[in-house]
Each structure stands twice: as structure tokens, then as C-alpha cells.
Amino acid sequence: MSIDWNAYSSDGFYDELVAALGQGHTAVAGLLADLEALGPEELVARQEAANVAIKEMGITFTVYSEEGGAIDRTWPFDIIPRIIAQSEWERVDAGLRQRVQALNLFIDDLYHEQRVIKGGVFPREVLAKSVNFRPQCIGVDPPLGIWAHICGSDLVRDSDGTIYVLEDNLRVPSGVSYMLENRLVTKRVLPELFEHYAPLPVDDYPSQLFDTLAALSPRPADYPEVVVLTPGIYNSAYFEHSYLAQQMGCELVEGRDLFVDKDDCVYMRTVDGPARVDVVYRRIDDLFLDPEAFLPDSALGVPGLMRAWKAGNVALANAPGAGVADDKVVYAFVPDLIRYYLDAEPIIPNVPTYRCMEPDALAYTLEHMESLVVKPANESGGYGMLVGPASTKAERDQLAERIKKDPRNYIAQPALRLSTVPTIIGARLEPRHVDLRPFILSADRQQVTMGGLTRVAMRKGSLVVNSSQGGGSKDTWIVPEPPQTPA
Amino acid sequence: MLSRVAENIYWMARYVERAENTARIVAVNANLLLDLPKGIAPGWRPLVDITGANALFEEHYKDYGERQVVRFLIGDERNVGSILSALVAARENCRTIRDFIPREAWELLNEIYLFARENLSKGVTKGGRHVYLKRVIQGAQNITGLLSGTMLHDQGYDFLHLGRFLERADMTTRIVDVRSANLLPEETTDLRPFETIQWVSVLKSMTAYQAYRRSEQVRVLRGPVLRFLFQNETFPRSVNHCVESLRASLSKLPRNDAALRVAGRLKRNLEGSEPRRLNQQQLHDFVDDLQVGIGELHQEIAKTWFPPVPESQSQAQSQG
User: Fold this and answer.
1) Whose CA is closest to B136, among B114, B169, B106, B157?
2) What is the distance between the alpha carbons of residues A354 and A352, in angstroms, rounded to a whole number?
3) Does some domain include residue A36?
4) Among partner residues B1, B98, B312, which is closest to A270 by beta-carbon distance?
5) Tens digits of per-residue pLDDT, B13-40?
6) Residue B190 and residue B194: Cα distance in Å, rounded?
7) Which among B159, B305, B307 has the least Cβ separation from residue A257?
8) Interface ipTM
9) How many independent structural domains does chain A possess?
10) Domain spans of chain B?
11) What is the pTM of this model?
């Protein structure tokens, strides 16, 4: 029995594997032939082996439930890899570097001279209404002038094959640990495919992350003390916090483990007494960081942390206030920002975006809501979003009222036809929609992960890839060309 | 090592030890009552006295009947000293330090917790109690053995020891205090055989009977039993052994001066008295002194190595 590729239909969507095959990508052809040679029973057996491995390795994410407290769920993973040719990836890589470079210049500018506003490129009223702009950060000079040291940008591919940036996550992007673990699991369960296609390695991320963080240390002469700051075990990404701390050989701390002394330096409480901390990789949001500067009743943060940061005695990654560029309205300006700061054309395009603050765009949006996706500026995880084609008239009317009241807070984009990748469903392969989140590190130099985390909407036809809503993931292979095909 | 991690390891060890000790006193009381004539049997109240949770108990139960006391001590989550509460707390402490202890220990603790929860209704019946308590005691012993055999014997292990031996010393003194108080007047000679039975039960609740016979080589009498439980150096549940273990762990930790001083005072107090010569009131005062010392040692450990308690939240992990 073999896999029937003729029965596999991606319904007019761009299928990553099938399209690559059509373009004469020999590595993909080889992979398809190899999957076929394994046969469906073996594939299902391998998938089961992967599930067992994930359970054994304790790869989990946390879902909070009212009755049972926090529950660790095992990470849903599909063994069929998603393949991207190295030549294409190099272009994406360059595009991401360019983008993050511009974003960092933009953030630094906003907290200093605001040339971009004075130059008429970025409207002042957008900044005025930004919920992630932190006046506390005005005039601060973080090390190397970098604010967003770790960025996770979400990429999607439309039906014509174009890769777009869907959004940039500059606050506390997560998912990188799953990218690393997915690779380990794939090596275990598909070793023969792995040998043939030799996807480029991803596992040096923890050491790159450590180097990025260490480069920010205010005491460069010493071996810097880097810590990972987590909100605690009930956070959905706690596994990742703990994983990265372990992989980097750093302490995993909670807010109450740290304190700021009279010398405005940060210390952690150890059984040997206070130990000076140089760099905090913080995985809690700005507003919870320091009760003295932000939410006064936050128990997660460290009183005085902002003071120590402003005094240059500790580095925070990402810097507080970096989230100002993590806003769906700002997103719409990124191509302009790239042109303004770098004097270059964007390498990866944005999804065409209608900024409702502009009268024409507002009119267009209100008229075409049925075919658009409308998003509020500062929500993540799909909250408050309207998917036009799937909405009711009542929902559209309601949203239209809200948009008219506060147009600055909304953008609209055409509903994309996300690409698909074959995924094991039951005992057969079916197309499922995917996105891709690469991670970009910036300090004394920039580094981009080789690929990233491919997230899969496991439900048929669904576009929702979030793990908390039934999304899964795949290993992402960047395959060199000419392909190292089997003899 | 982070202070918070040290604290979590310490409390995990204390709660595991507490679950085990509570299981022991319930199991032995059940046996004891079968051996004593109805008229003089002390009933179940002494168990609540041992844990010191009488106020809480009386708030929720009408009388100190068997069913009520057993439920209170095994499965009542309002009682922080119940077996189930102790296992819940041990597990919560363990959850945040999963990087520091072997994965198998976490799994084992989880398993015992699930067993204790799922079999609770059987555990509180006369027929199912024995098996239930035995599993809890064995489970706690398994964790201790697993950690000793697989965990890094570094600072974390020292804090594990501190938690375990402090809790154990505390419980041994409580058992002696309450059990000896319930004993019959010392002069009533015709009730002597029953007094022996009660001292045997004290020994048995600590799996000390065999060890006592080998080590003391006399029949079970108040004086030698007291000496054995307080001062024997080799029996792992004697107060002296616990204090010695505490001192050994403390001596390996940094900034240990103050804590070692408190432990030293405890040790001198223990060595400088002859518990067998004390009458009941004096014995009670002696135990009180020891308990104060144990409490001070905990305070000193917390002050030296643990994170300060936030003002908003008074110590959630009470010694109850």
C-alpha cells in the first residue's frame, strides 16, 4: 500500500510541498518519494513514536482551567516537515534583518528626537494613541541602541506563493523552544530522511541567544550574570522559560528572587547571599516589570528595576517600551519606515493594509468588510478580530460602529489564502494551513533562526494556528541547493 | 542556588515527611485501640492534639469520633496537616523545582498524590485504612530513597535534609508529648500491662520497636523509651539523630553561624537533661523547650537562606 498523492488535493491553496515539486525542486520530489516508500502504516507508526517521545521529553505547554488549576498539555506535533529552499530562505533572512533593523531605529527615534514624526513619515496621533508607548522610557539609551533584541515575526504565504510579514512580535515572543524540540523529535523518528536532505541545523539558538544577551552586559569585562525572568509556573510559556534557562545555563528567576539595592544595581537572592545580575531576559510584560514605574500592584515584577535600567546598571531584553512598534497600526507603516531609515525597498512585503485613520481606507474598509480581516491595533491572540467572510451582518454592523468611533485603532487586510502542508490526519495525508515564526536576534550583530516555528491549524479549513486553540506544529527544514539527493 | 529554590526544596521535604508521619500516627492508633480495654482507651482525640489543630477541628466537627478524626487527618483539605494537604503542598513546591530534582522523583510524588486523592473514600474506612496508610508511608520512603540515590548531593540536598529532619524532630517530640500525657497515672500498678502496650504503640508509630529492642535490650519501659526516642544517636527518628543530621547539613552551607548556634543550643538542651527522670509536667516542659528550639531553628534557616516573606502575604506554609 502506498500514499495516494492523486487523492491529495489542496483545493486551490498554495501547498508548500506540491508547489515546490511543480517548480522542479528535487529535494522535495525526493522527500515525497521517500514518504511514499515508507507507506501510510509506517508513517502513522512514526507519528505515534513522535507523540511518545514528546511525552517522555516532557514538552508541554500550560493551559489554565478553573477547576484543575494549570494543566500541562503535551505539544501537538506533526512529523511531516515543512520544506523551504535555502535560496528562498536567504532572501527571507535578509528581509527580516532589514525589518528588525528599521524597527529598532524607529523605536530609538521615538524615545529620542522623533525625527520620523517631524519628517512627516509617521503621524503623531498614531503615537499619541499607542498603548505600548512608555513615557518612562523617553531619553533612555539602552546598550548598543537596541530595543528589540529578540523579535518573532509571523510570516504567511498567500495563494500566489508570495511570503508576507503578518505581524512582528517585539514584546515577549514565544515558541522558539518548540522549534528546537521539534527538530530533536524529527531526528529521532525520521532519521533516514534527515540524513538524505541534511536540513540546516537550528540547535545553536540557545548559545546565540546567550551571546546576544551577554553582549548587553554593563560589565563587559566580567563573565556576565544573565537570568531569565518568568512570571512563574502558571504562565503558558513556562516550559519555554525553563528550557531556555537550562539550555543557556542561566538561573530561571521570578520577580521575588530579584531586588534593587541602594546602589541601583539588581541582585538575586541566593543561598550564598546577594549576587549581582547584569542582564535580565524578561519574559513578563512591560506593565508588570516594576511596580514603582508601572502597575503598582504587580507582584510579578521587581521594584526599582526601571531605575536600575535607566542608570545603565542592568540590561533588559527586550527593552521596556519596545512594544511600541508591536502594534497593528504601526505595522502598516513598516515599509515606509524601512525606506525612511535604511533608504531601501522592503525585501519582504507587508500584507496590504488599510489604515482606517485615513479617510479613503476607512471608506474602503466599511464598504468591503465582508471580504476583509479587520483587526484592533493592540490585541494579540486574535481577540477583537473580525474575519469578514466568516462574519454575520450583525457582527459587521457592530464593528463598523466601533471603527467609526475610533478609526485609529483599526486596520483591515484582505483575507489571505494561507498556504498548506501535508499533515497526517488519521491514516492519511491532508492539507492543513500553516504560518511560520522565525526569530531574529539583535545585539552587536544580527542572527536569524534557520527557518523557525511552523504552526499548523489542525482542524480542516481552519486558519487558527494558536496552540491554545488546537493548533499544532511542524519541523521546518531549510534545505540547501543543489539538493543532496540520495544516490 | 536561588533562595527560592532552596525554600521550595526544604518545604517539599517537610511536607513529604509530614504526610508520612501523619499516616504513621493514624495507623498505630488504630492498632492501639484494639489492644486497650474500652474504659481506659484514650480514643482518637490525642491524634488531633499531636497535630495541634484542635481549634480547626472543633470548628468543623461535633466530636472526636473515629470517623471524624480519621477524615480530618487523612483527607480534609481544610487541615494543612492532613495527608492529602501535605501531598498537595509537597507537589506544588516540587513543581517549581523540577529542574533540580530527578524527573522520577516528581513522577513518584505525583503518583502518590494521585493515589491518595483517588482512594480517599477507601482510606477513611476501617477496612481500607491499613492498605491506604501503608502505601502513603511507603511512597514517602520511596521518594526519600530515590532522592538519596539519584539527586546531586549539593546544596539542594542539604536543604532537603534540613526540611526532612526538622519536620521529623518536631513530630517525634509531639508524639512523645501527647502520648505520654495520655498515659495512666504512674502508680496504678494493676494497669501496668496496658501502659506497656501504649509505649509499644509509641515505638511502633515510628517503626522503632525492633530498633529499641536491639539497642536497649530491656523490656519496654517509660524511662528507656524516652531515652531512646530523645537521645539515641543511631535511630534515624530520634530527636538527637535529627538534630545531629541538621547540624551536619547546616555545617556545609554558607553563612551558617547563627543557624548553627541555634542548633547547638538545641543539642545542649537535649544532652543536658535526663528525660527518664522527669515527671509528666517536667517532661511536658522539656518537650516545650525543644519545640521552641525547633521553631527558632526554622526561623533562622528562613531568615538566612530563604527569600523574605512579602508583606502582603503572611507565611502561607505554616507549621500547622
Assistant:
1) B114
2) 7
3) no
4) B1
5) 999 999 999 999 898 888 888 877 777 7
6) 9
7) B307
8) 0.79
9) 1
10) 1-151, 153-307
11) 0.84
